[in-house]
Design a protein that fits this description.
single chain, 203 residues, mainly alpha, globular
Length: 203
């Protein structure tokens, strides 16, 4: 596989990993009674309805060209928490569904890599599978960070007592500031965890 084909493959892996992540949010919301994502045509693995011109196409090429890594995002799948049957933990379940899908993908391809027959180990497959595992672990762990708009903030909100409404308001109001701080100071710290989990899965 030449360099260009490898880059295209990696961008497609990122794209479909993000699409599966978003569809998982919609499927969980649908299972809990919310039809918003279905009516919007977003419960599909067809990437076209999920594409964001900048986040899904330009940003991956830009980050690879400038930094040698691939990063991107898709349009968030819409859902209405007011329609969920589980009002207390429903949003947390919807939020966790996305990272869980990435963890499952990482486990599937990681175990395939771990138990790959010897005659395939000299092929391009180990490199391709390794990238699939790594990018999905990054997506899962990054999105589980408890800051808006990441999925982890829904998990965090579900365990905050209602009496701490002033803290909830502060937390949501300044979520963007927290997110920027996370990008600069916390994001670099997740990579040792990602590589530790990678080694744990693939052996």
């Amino acid at each position: 596989m030449d360099e260009f084909s490898l880059v295209v493959f990696k961008i497609l892996v990122v794209l479909f990993s993000i699409v599966i992540h978003e569809v998982s949010h919609g499927l969980m919301a649908y299972s809990l009674g919310d039809n918003t994502a279905k009516h919007a045509g977003r419960l599909t693995l067809n990437p076209l309805p999920h594409l964001d011109l900048f986040g899904s196409i330009l940003l991956p090429f830009l980050t690879y060209s400038l930094g040698g890594f691939i990063f991107g995002y898709a349009k968030p799948v819409p859902y209405n928490p007011l329609y969920l049957r589980d009002q207390k933990f429903g949003p947390a379940k919807v939020g966790f569904a996305g990272p869980l899908s990435n963890i499952l993908i990482a486990l599937i391809f990681g175990l395939m890599l771990r138990f790959m027959p010897t005659f395939l180990q000299a092929s391009i497959l180990p490199e391709l599978f390794s990238f699939i595992v790594l990018i999905n672990l990054v997506l899962a762990i990054f999105n589980l960070l408890p800051v808006p708009p990441l999925d982890g903030h829904w998990l965090f909100l579900s365990i905050i007592p209602d009496r701490l409404y002033s803290f909830r308001n502060f937390y949501l109001r300044y979520g963007l500031v927290l997110f920027v701080l996370v990008l600069f100071f916390v994001l670099p710290l997740i990579f040792p965890l990602v590589f530790s989990l990678f080694r744990l899965i693939v052996g």
